[in-house]
Amino acid sequence: MLDSGAKKRILMVEDTASVAALYKSYLNPLDVDVEIASNGKQALEQFSSDSAFSLILLDLRLPDVSGFDVLAEIRKQKPDIPVVIMTAHGSIDAAVEALRYGASDFLIKPCEADLLRVTVNNALKPKSAVNKKSPEGAYYGFIGRSVPMQAVYRVIDSAAPSKATVFITGESGTGKEVCAEAVHAASARAKNAFVAINCAAIPKDLIESELFGHVKGAFTGAASEREGAAEMADGGTLFLDEICEMDLDLQSKLLRFIQTGTFQKVGSSKVKQVDVRFVCATNRDPWEEVMKGNFREDLYYRLHVIPLTLPPLRDRGEDVLEIAESLLLHVAMEEGKDFRSFDDNVVQRLINYDWPGNVRQLQNVIRNIVVLHNGREVTEMMLPPPLSTVSGVKIASNGIKNKNQNTIAQTREDNFAVGSALESSGSITKADIEPLWLVEKRAIQIAIDACDGNIPQAAGLLEVSPSTIYRKLQSWQESQEKRN
Fold this sequence. Notes:
- One of its GO terms (molecular function) is ATP binding.
- Residues 142-371 form the Sigma-54 factor interaction domain.
- Pfam families: AAA_lid_14 (PF25601), HTH_8 (PF02954), Response_reg (PF00072), Sigma54_activat (PF00158).
- The protein has 484 residues and is an alpha/beta fold.
- Helix content is 47%, strand content 14%.
- It is built from 20 helices and 18 strands.
- The strands form six sheets. A five-stranded parallel β-sheet has the order 2-1-3-4-5, with helices on both faces. The protein has a five-stranded parallel β-sheet with strand order 9-12-15-8-16.
Protein backbone atom coordinates (compact mmCIF):
# COMPACT_ATOMS: atom_id res chain seq x y z
CA MET A 1 0.00 0.00 0.00
CA LEU A 2 2.91 2.36 0.56
CA ASP A 3 4.24 4.35 -2.38
CA SER A 4 7.73 2.96 -2.93
CA GLY A 5 11.29 2.96 -1.61
CA ALA A 6 12.98 1.43 1.41
CA LYS A 7 11.09 0.19 4.45
CA LYS A 8 9.83 3.06 6.52
CA ARG A 9 10.27 3.03 10.27
CA ILE A 10 7.51 3.88 12.74
CA LEU A 11 7.83 4.59 16.45
CA MET A 12 4.71 3.50 18.37
CA VAL A 13 4.41 4.97 21.88
CA GLU A 14 1.95 2.71 23.73
CA ASP A 15 2.13 1.67 27.39
CA THR A 16 -0.11 -1.42 27.09
CA ALA A 17 2.02 -4.23 25.66
CA SER A 18 -0.91 -6.29 24.34
CA VAL A 19 -2.40 -3.30 22.51
CA ALA A 20 1.00 -2.38 21.05
CA ALA A 21 1.49 -5.95 19.80
CA LEU A 22 -2.01 -5.99 18.26
CA TYR A 23 -1.57 -2.69 16.43
CA LYS A 24 1.90 -3.73 15.25
CA SER A 25 0.35 -6.85 13.71
CA TYR A 26 -2.28 -4.65 12.00
CA LEU A 27 0.55 -2.78 10.23
CA ASN A 28 2.35 -5.88 8.92
CA PRO A 29 0.71 -5.67 5.45
CA LEU A 30 2.22 -2.18 4.98
CA ASP A 31 5.76 -3.59 5.06
CA VAL A 32 7.00 -1.13 7.67
CA ASP A 33 9.32 -1.55 10.67
CA VAL A 34 7.51 -0.74 13.92
CA GLU A 35 9.45 -0.05 17.11
CA ILE A 36 7.61 0.24 20.43
CA ALA A 37 8.21 2.58 23.36
CA SER A 38 6.25 1.85 26.55
CA ASN A 39 6.44 5.35 28.06
CA GLY A 40 7.20 8.96 27.21
CA LYS A 41 10.78 8.98 28.49
CA GLN A 42 11.70 5.90 26.49
CA ALA A 43 10.04 7.37 23.39
CA LEU A 44 12.05 10.59 23.60
CA GLU A 45 15.28 8.65 24.15
CA GLN A 46 14.65 6.46 21.09
CA PHE A 47 13.62 9.45 19.01
CA SER A 48 16.66 11.53 20.04
CA SER A 49 19.14 8.75 19.37
CA ASP A 50 17.63 7.75 16.01
CA SER A 51 16.36 10.35 13.53
CA ALA A 52 15.38 7.80 10.86
CA PHE A 53 11.74 7.43 11.94
CA SER A 54 9.17 8.37 9.28
CA LEU A 55 6.12 8.48 11.59
CA ILE A 56 5.24 8.57 15.30
CA LEU A 57 2.10 6.86 16.65
CA LEU A 58 1.60 8.45 20.04
CA ASP A 59 -0.79 7.58 22.88
CA LEU A 60 -1.95 10.61 24.91
CA ARG A 61 -2.23 8.73 28.21
CA LEU A 62 1.23 7.57 29.27
CA PRO A 63 2.38 6.33 32.70
CA ASP A 64 5.12 8.93 33.23
CA VAL A 65 4.38 12.10 31.19
CA SER A 66 1.58 13.50 29.08
CA GLY A 67 1.51 12.60 25.41
CA PHE A 68 1.15 16.32 24.70
CA ASP A 69 4.55 16.93 26.34
CA VAL A 70 6.09 14.21 24.20
CA LEU A 71 4.51 15.72 21.08
CA ALA A 72 5.84 19.19 21.94
CA GLU A 73 9.38 17.85 22.39
CA ILE A 74 9.21 15.88 19.12
CA ARG A 75 8.07 19.03 17.31
CA LYS A 76 11.08 20.94 18.72
CA GLN A 77 13.54 18.34 17.47
CA LYS A 78 11.91 17.53 14.14
CA PRO A 79 9.02 19.82 13.11
CA ASP A 80 8.18 18.02 9.87
CA ILE A 81 7.75 14.43 11.09
CA PRO A 82 4.07 13.32 11.03
CA VAL A 83 2.62 12.41 14.43
CA VAL A 84 -0.66 10.52 14.72
CA ILE A 85 -2.30 10.76 18.12
CA MET A 86 -3.94 7.55 19.39
CA THR A 87 -6.12 7.71 22.48
CA ALA A 88 -9.00 5.86 24.05
CA HIS A 89 -10.15 9.16 25.51
CA GLY A 90 -10.87 10.70 22.13
CA SER A 91 -13.05 13.72 21.74
CA ILE A 92 -13.17 16.84 19.65
CA ASP A 93 -11.59 18.76 22.55
CA ALA A 94 -8.63 16.36 22.64
CA ALA A 95 -8.37 16.50 18.84
CA VAL A 96 -8.31 20.30 18.88
CA GLU A 97 -5.59 20.31 21.54
CA ALA A 98 -3.54 17.68 19.67
CA LEU A 99 -3.74 19.68 16.43
CA ARG A 100 -2.65 22.83 18.26
CA TYR A 101 0.39 20.97 19.53
CA GLY A 102 1.19 19.96 15.94
CA ALA A 103 -0.32 16.49 15.46
CA SER A 104 -0.96 15.57 11.83
CA ASP A 105 -3.85 13.20 12.50
CA PHE A 106 -5.98 11.71 15.25
CA LEU A 107 -7.28 8.19 15.95
CA ILE A 108 -9.74 7.04 18.60
CA LYS A 109 -8.96 3.68 20.20
CA PRO A 110 -9.92 0.93 19.84
CA CYS A 111 -9.46 1.31 16.10
CA GLU A 112 -9.97 -1.33 13.44
CA ALA A 113 -7.11 -2.74 11.39
CA ASP A 114 -8.23 -1.13 8.11
CA LEU A 115 -8.66 2.28 9.74
CA LEU A 116 -5.18 2.15 11.31
CA ARG A 117 -3.56 1.04 8.04
CA VAL A 118 -5.30 3.74 5.97
CA THR A 119 -4.36 6.46 8.49
CA VAL A 120 -0.71 5.35 8.61
CA ASN A 121 -0.55 5.04 4.83
CA ASN A 122 -1.93 8.59 4.40
CA ALA A 123 0.47 9.97 7.01
CA LEU A 124 3.45 8.45 5.21
CA LYS A 125 2.51 9.92 1.83
CA PRO A 126 4.32 13.06 0.63
CA LYS A 127 2.41 16.20 1.62
CA SER A 128 1.87 17.17 -2.00
CA ALA A 129 -0.14 13.98 -2.55
CA VAL A 130 -2.56 14.71 0.27
CA ASN A 131 -5.57 17.03 0.53
CA LYS A 132 -6.21 17.59 -3.20
CA LYS A 133 -9.86 16.68 -2.92
CA SER A 134 -11.16 20.19 -2.27
CA PRO A 135 -10.19 23.85 -2.56
CA GLU A 136 -8.61 25.66 0.37
CA GLY A 137 -11.08 26.27 3.18
CA ALA A 138 -13.59 23.72 1.86
CA TYR A 139 -14.07 20.09 2.82
CA TYR A 140 -16.84 17.82 1.43
CA GLY A 141 -19.58 20.46 1.73
CA PHE A 142 -18.13 22.20 4.80
CA ILE A 143 -16.67 25.70 4.58
CA GLY A 144 -14.13 26.93 7.13
CA ARG A 145 -10.61 26.33 8.33
CA SER A 146 -10.91 27.07 12.07
CA VAL A 147 -9.09 24.74 14.47
CA PRO A 148 -12.31 23.08 15.77
CA MET A 149 -13.35 22.28 12.19
CA GLN A 150 -9.87 21.01 11.29
CA ALA A 151 -10.31 18.54 14.15
CA VAL A 152 -13.67 17.46 12.70
CA TYR A 153 -12.09 16.95 9.27
CA ARG A 154 -9.34 14.81 10.80
CA VAL A 155 -11.84 12.55 12.56
CA ILE A 156 -13.87 12.17 9.35
CA ASP A 157 -10.73 11.29 7.38
CA SER A 158 -9.79 8.68 9.98
CA ALA A 159 -13.28 7.21 10.38
CA ALA A 160 -14.46 7.21 6.76
CA PRO A 161 -12.51 4.15 5.46
CA SER A 162 -13.90 2.01 8.28
CA LYS A 163 -17.38 0.49 8.60
CA ALA A 164 -17.55 1.67 12.22
CA THR A 165 -20.66 3.67 13.13
CA VAL A 166 -20.19 7.42 13.47
CA PHE A 167 -22.39 9.13 16.08
CA ILE A 168 -22.69 12.86 15.34
CA THR A 169 -23.86 15.29 18.01
CA GLY A 170 -24.19 19.05 17.96
CA GLU A 171 -26.63 21.90 18.23
CA SER A 172 -29.41 22.29 15.69
CA GLY A 173 -28.14 23.90 12.50
CA THR A 174 -24.46 22.95 12.86
CA GLY A 175 -24.47 20.72 9.76
CA LYS A 176 -24.93 17.18 11.04
CA GLU A 177 -26.31 15.91 7.72
CA VAL A 178 -23.46 17.62 5.85
CA CYS A 179 -21.10 15.78 8.20
CA ALA A 180 -22.81 12.45 7.51
CA GLU A 181 -22.54 13.06 3.77
CA ALA A 182 -18.84 13.88 4.24
CA VAL A 183 -18.26 10.56 6.01
CA HIS A 184 -19.95 8.81 3.08
CA ALA A 185 -18.13 10.82 0.39
CA ALA A 186 -14.72 10.16 1.99
CA SER A 187 -15.36 6.40 2.22
CA ALA A 188 -15.05 3.57 -0.27
CA ARG A 189 -18.87 3.51 -0.39
CA ALA A 190 -19.06 6.93 -2.06
CA LYS A 191 -20.20 5.45 -5.40
CA ASN A 192 -23.17 3.77 -3.73
CA ALA A 193 -26.29 5.29 -2.18
CA PHE A 194 -26.43 7.69 0.75
CA VAL A 195 -29.90 7.37 2.28
CA ALA A 196 -31.10 9.73 5.03
CA ILE A 197 -34.11 9.13 7.25
CA ASN A 198 -35.31 11.68 9.82
CA CYS A 199 -36.62 9.79 12.83
CA ALA A 200 -38.35 12.92 14.19
CA ALA A 201 -40.17 13.91 11.00
CA ILE A 202 -41.90 10.59 10.30
CA PRO A 203 -44.99 9.52 12.30
CA LYS A 204 -44.43 6.69 14.76
CA ASP A 205 -46.73 4.33 12.85
CA LEU A 206 -44.90 4.80 9.55
CA ILE A 207 -41.23 4.93 10.51
CA GLU A 208 -40.76 1.13 10.54
CA SER A 209 -42.14 0.98 7.00
CA GLU A 210 -39.85 3.87 5.96
CA LEU A 211 -36.86 2.09 7.44
CA PHE A 212 -37.49 -1.51 6.41
CA GLY A 213 -40.17 -1.24 3.71
CA HIS A 214 -43.45 -3.17 3.50
CA VAL A 215 -45.24 -5.73 1.35
CA LYS A 216 -48.54 -5.19 -0.41
CA GLY A 217 -51.47 -5.29 2.03
CA ALA A 218 -49.28 -5.06 5.14
CA PHE A 219 -51.52 -2.28 6.46
CA THR A 220 -54.29 0.01 5.28
CA GLY A 221 -53.00 2.02 2.34
CA ALA A 222 -50.18 -0.38 1.45
CA ALA A 223 -51.33 -0.80 -2.17
CA SER A 224 -48.01 -2.13 -3.40
CA GLU A 225 -44.71 -3.47 -2.11
CA ARG A 226 -42.27 -0.75 -1.05
CA GLU A 227 -38.52 -0.72 -0.63
CA GLY A 228 -37.30 0.77 2.66
CA ALA A 229 -34.27 2.94 3.45
CA ALA A 230 -32.26 -0.10 4.65
CA GLU A 231 -32.62 -1.83 1.30
CA MET A 232 -31.96 1.34 -0.72
CA ALA A 233 -28.73 1.90 1.24
CA ASP A 234 -27.34 -1.59 0.50
CA GLY A 235 -23.62 -1.16 -0.23
CA GLY A 236 -23.76 2.47 0.88
CA THR A 237 -24.52 4.55 3.98
CA LEU A 238 -27.71 4.83 6.03
CA PHE A 239 -28.00 8.10 7.94
CA LEU A 240 -30.41 8.07 10.91
CA ASP A 241 -31.03 11.70 11.84
CA GLU A 242 -32.53 12.62 15.24
CA ILE A 243 -31.98 9.02 16.36
CA CYS A 244 -33.03 9.79 19.95
CA GLU A 245 -36.57 10.49 18.70
CA MET A 246 -37.04 6.88 17.58
CA ASP A 247 -39.74 4.85 19.34
CA LEU A 248 -38.41 2.33 21.89
CA ASP A 249 -40.13 -0.62 20.17
CA LEU A 250 -38.43 0.18 16.88
CA GLN A 251 -35.10 0.68 18.66
CA SER A 252 -35.03 -3.04 19.51
CA LYS A 253 -35.58 -3.94 15.83
CA LEU A 254 -32.91 -1.47 14.78
CA LEU A 255 -30.48 -3.04 17.27
CA ARG A 256 -31.03 -6.48 15.73
CA PHE A 257 -30.61 -5.02 12.24
CA ILE A 258 -27.28 -3.41 13.21
CA GLN A 259 -26.03 -6.60 14.86
CA THR A 260 -27.00 -9.02 12.08
CA GLY A 261 -27.44 -6.90 8.96
CA THR A 262 -30.80 -8.63 8.45
CA PHE A 263 -34.36 -7.30 8.58
CA GLN A 264 -37.92 -8.13 7.60
CA LYS A 265 -40.26 -5.87 5.69
CA VAL A 266 -43.47 -4.96 7.48
CA GLY A 267 -45.96 -7.76 6.82
CA SER A 268 -43.34 -10.19 5.50
CA SER A 269 -41.73 -13.26 7.04
CA LYS A 270 -38.86 -13.24 4.55
CA VAL A 271 -35.49 -12.20 5.99
CA LYS A 272 -33.31 -9.92 3.88
CA GLN A 273 -29.62 -9.17 4.36
CA VAL A 274 -27.83 -5.97 3.36
CA ASP A 275 -24.41 -4.38 3.75
CA VAL A 276 -24.94 -0.95 5.29
CA ARG A 277 -22.68 1.56 7.04
CA PHE A 278 -24.52 3.45 9.80
CA VAL A 279 -24.16 7.12 10.63
CA CYS A 280 -26.53 8.67 13.16
CA ALA A 281 -27.06 12.10 14.64
CA THR A 282 -28.89 13.95 17.40
CA ASN A 283 -28.98 17.45 18.87
CA ARG A 284 -29.54 15.97 22.34
CA ASP A 285 -27.14 14.39 24.80
CA PRO A 286 -27.57 10.68 23.93
CA TRP A 287 -26.34 9.43 27.32
CA GLU A 288 -28.79 11.74 29.09
CA GLU A 289 -31.56 10.21 26.95
CA VAL A 290 -30.40 6.75 28.07
CA MET A 291 -30.59 7.86 31.71
CA LYS A 292 -34.12 9.19 31.12
CA GLY A 293 -35.19 5.86 29.62
CA ASN A 294 -35.84 7.33 26.17
CA PHE A 295 -32.98 5.52 24.44
CA ARG A 296 -31.87 1.92 24.84
CA GLU A 297 -28.52 1.53 26.56
CA ASP A 298 -27.49 -1.47 24.42
CA LEU A 299 -28.33 0.47 21.26
CA TYR A 300 -26.30 3.43 22.55
CA TYR A 301 -23.21 1.24 22.99
CA ARG A 302 -23.75 -0.33 19.57
CA LEU A 303 -24.01 3.06 17.80
CA HIS A 304 -21.64 5.21 19.88
CA VAL A 305 -18.46 3.82 18.32
CA ILE A 306 -16.88 6.96 16.86
CA PRO A 307 -18.38 10.03 18.55
CA LEU A 308 -18.10 13.28 16.59
CA THR A 309 -19.27 16.59 18.04
CA LEU A 310 -19.77 19.52 15.67
CA PRO A 311 -18.80 22.90 17.15
CA PRO A 312 -21.44 25.67 17.19
CA LEU A 313 -20.89 28.52 14.75
CA ARG A 314 -20.04 30.95 17.57
CA ASP A 315 -16.94 28.83 18.38
CA ARG A 316 -15.66 28.80 14.80
CA GLY A 317 -14.14 32.30 14.69
CA GLU A 318 -13.91 33.81 11.22
CA ASP A 319 -15.45 30.73 9.58
CA VAL A 320 -18.72 32.64 9.86
CA LEU A 321 -17.43 35.22 7.39
CA GLU A 322 -16.25 32.59 4.88
CA ILE A 323 -19.63 30.85 5.08
CA ALA A 324 -21.54 34.14 4.79
CA GLU A 325 -19.54 35.21 1.71
CA SER A 326 -20.11 31.86 0.01
CA LEU A 327 -23.84 31.97 0.81
CA LEU A 328 -24.12 35.57 -0.39
CA LEU A 329 -22.69 34.75 -3.82
CA HIS A 330 -24.78 31.59 -4.13
CA VAL A 331 -28.10 33.19 -3.13
CA ALA A 332 -27.40 36.33 -5.19
CA MET A 333 -26.93 34.16 -8.29
CA GLU A 334 -30.13 32.24 -7.51
CA GLU A 335 -32.14 35.44 -7.09
CA GLY A 336 -30.49 37.36 -9.94
CA LYS A 337 -29.10 40.04 -7.61
CA ASP A 338 -25.76 41.92 -7.67
CA PHE A 339 -24.48 41.31 -4.10
CA ARG A 340 -20.78 40.49 -3.86
CA SER A 341 -19.52 41.61 -0.40
CA PHE A 342 -20.24 43.00 3.08
CA ASP A 343 -19.19 46.40 4.39
CA ASP A 344 -16.88 46.58 7.42
CA ASN A 345 -19.67 47.22 9.94
CA VAL A 346 -21.62 44.18 8.72
CA VAL A 347 -18.48 42.04 8.91
CA GLN A 348 -18.11 42.96 12.58
CA ARG A 349 -21.78 42.23 13.25
CA LEU A 350 -21.50 38.79 11.63
CA ILE A 351 -18.37 37.88 13.59
CA ASN A 352 -19.55 39.23 16.97
CA TYR A 353 -23.08 37.79 16.90
CA ASP A 354 -23.37 34.45 18.73
CA TRP A 355 -25.64 32.66 16.19
CA PRO A 356 -27.92 30.53 18.39
CA GLY A 357 -29.39 28.98 15.23
CA ASN A 358 -25.92 28.28 13.81
CA VAL A 359 -25.38 27.89 10.05
CA ARG A 360 -29.11 27.46 9.38
CA GLN A 361 -29.81 30.85 10.94
CA LEU A 362 -26.98 32.41 8.91
CA GLN A 363 -28.50 30.97 5.73
CA ASN A 364 -31.85 32.54 6.57
CA VAL A 365 -30.28 35.92 7.33
CA ILE A 366 -28.39 35.98 4.01
CA ARG A 367 -31.47 34.97 2.01
CA ASN A 368 -33.54 37.65 3.77
CA ILE A 369 -30.98 40.31 2.81
CA VAL A 370 -30.72 39.22 -0.82
CA VAL A 371 -34.46 38.86 -1.39
CA LEU A 372 -35.47 42.19 0.20
CA HIS A 373 -32.61 44.43 -1.02
CA ASN A 374 -30.27 45.05 -3.91
CA GLY A 375 -26.79 46.42 -4.42
CA ARG A 376 -23.24 45.12 -4.59
CA GLU A 377 -22.42 45.53 -0.90
CA VAL A 378 -24.48 44.53 2.16
CA THR A 379 -24.84 47.43 4.61
CA GLU A 380 -26.04 47.62 8.22
CA MET A 381 -29.41 49.03 7.11
CA MET A 382 -30.13 45.75 5.28
CA LEU A 383 -29.62 43.49 8.31
CA PRO A 384 -32.80 41.82 9.62
CA PRO A 385 -33.54 41.35 13.35
CA PRO A 386 -31.89 40.43 15.64
CA LEU A 387 -28.70 41.57 13.88
CA SER A 388 -30.27 44.95 13.17
CA THR A 389 -30.74 45.62 16.89
CA VAL A 390 -28.65 48.61 17.96
CA SER A 391 -25.80 47.89 20.33
CA GLY A 392 -25.80 48.49 24.07
CA VAL A 393 -23.56 51.54 23.64
CA LYS A 394 -25.96 53.16 21.18
CA ILE A 395 -28.97 52.45 23.38
CA ALA A 396 -27.23 53.93 26.38
CA SER A 397 -26.42 57.11 24.45
CA ASN A 398 -29.70 57.54 22.60
CA GLY A 399 -32.22 58.62 25.16
CA ILE A 400 -33.29 55.64 27.23
CA LYS A 401 -31.80 57.50 30.15
CA ASN A 402 -34.95 58.43 31.97
CA LYS A 403 -37.12 55.95 33.83
CA ASN A 404 -35.37 52.81 32.52
CA GLN A 405 -31.81 53.73 33.37
CA ASN A 406 -32.81 55.43 36.62
CA THR A 407 -34.53 52.21 37.74
CA ILE A 408 -31.52 50.04 36.91
CA ALA A 409 -29.04 52.54 38.37
CA GLN A 410 -31.03 52.74 41.61
CA THR A 411 -31.20 48.93 41.80
CA ARG A 412 -27.44 48.68 41.27
CA GLU A 413 -26.80 51.29 43.99
CA ASP A 414 -29.16 49.57 46.44
CA ASN A 415 -27.58 46.17 45.84
CA PHE A 416 -24.08 47.58 46.15
CA ALA A 417 -25.00 49.45 49.36
CA VAL A 418 -26.50 46.33 50.94
CA GLY A 419 -23.48 44.24 49.94
CA SER A 420 -21.04 46.84 51.26
CA ALA A 421 -22.90 47.13 54.55
CA LEU A 422 -22.89 43.37 55.07
CA GLU A 423 -19.22 43.15 54.17
CA SER A 424 -18.16 45.98 56.46
CA SER A 425 -20.15 44.60 59.37
CA GLY A 426 -18.58 41.18 58.91
CA SER A 427 -22.03 39.60 59.03
CA ILE A 428 -21.92 37.79 55.69
CA THR A 429 -22.51 34.06 56.11
CA LYS A 430 -22.83 31.16 53.71
CA ALA A 431 -26.59 31.53 53.96
CA ASP A 432 -26.31 35.04 52.43
CA ILE A 433 -24.65 33.74 49.25
CA GLU A 434 -27.02 33.17 46.31
CA PRO A 435 -26.38 30.88 43.32
CA LEU A 436 -24.93 32.84 40.41
CA TRP A 437 -27.77 31.83 38.07
CA LEU A 438 -30.28 33.35 40.49
CA VAL A 439 -28.37 36.65 40.62
CA GLU A 440 -28.19 36.61 36.82
CA LYS A 441 -31.89 35.83 36.51
CA ARG A 442 -32.81 38.72 38.83
CA ALA A 443 -30.59 41.16 36.91
CA ILE A 444 -32.16 40.13 33.58
CA GLN A 445 -35.68 40.42 34.95
CA ILE A 446 -34.97 43.90 36.39
CA ALA A 447 -33.64 45.03 33.00
CA ILE A 448 -36.65 43.63 31.13
CA ASP A 449 -39.08 45.27 33.56
CA ALA A 450 -37.22 48.59 33.33
CA CYS A 451 -37.46 48.44 29.51
CA ASP A 452 -41.20 47.61 29.61
CA GLY A 453 -40.61 44.12 28.23
CA ASN A 454 -38.36 45.22 25.34
CA ILE A 455 -35.72 42.46 25.38
CA PRO A 456 -33.36 44.02 22.77
CA GLN A 457 -33.25 47.22 24.86
CA ALA A 458 -32.67 45.20 28.03
CA ALA A 459 -29.88 43.32 26.30
CA GLY A 460 -28.26 46.59 25.28
CA LEU A 461 -28.29 47.88 28.84
CA LEU A 462 -26.89 44.59 30.13
CA GLU A 463 -24.29 44.65 27.32
CA VAL A 464 -25.16 41.17 26.07
CA SER A 465 -26.73 39.82 22.88
CA PRO A 466 -30.58 39.63 22.81
CA SER A 467 -30.24 35.96 21.81
CA THR A 468 -28.39 35.33 25.08
CA ILE A 469 -31.39 36.60 27.05
CA TYR A 470 -33.87 34.64 24.91
CA ARG A 471 -31.81 31.47 25.44
CA LYS A 472 -31.57 31.93 29.20
CA LEU A 473 -35.30 32.67 29.54
CA GLN A 474 -36.09 29.51 27.60
CA SER A 475 -33.69 27.47 29.75
CA TRP A 476 -35.24 28.76 32.98
CA GLN A 477 -38.74 28.09 31.66
CA GLU A 478 -37.83 24.50 30.74
CA SER A 479 -36.29 23.96 34.20
CA GLN A 480 -39.46 25.28 35.82
CA GLU A 481 -41.63 22.96 33.72
CA LYS A 482 -39.49 19.97 34.72
CA ARG A 483 -39.85 20.86 38.42
CA ASN A 484 -43.63 21.14 38.00
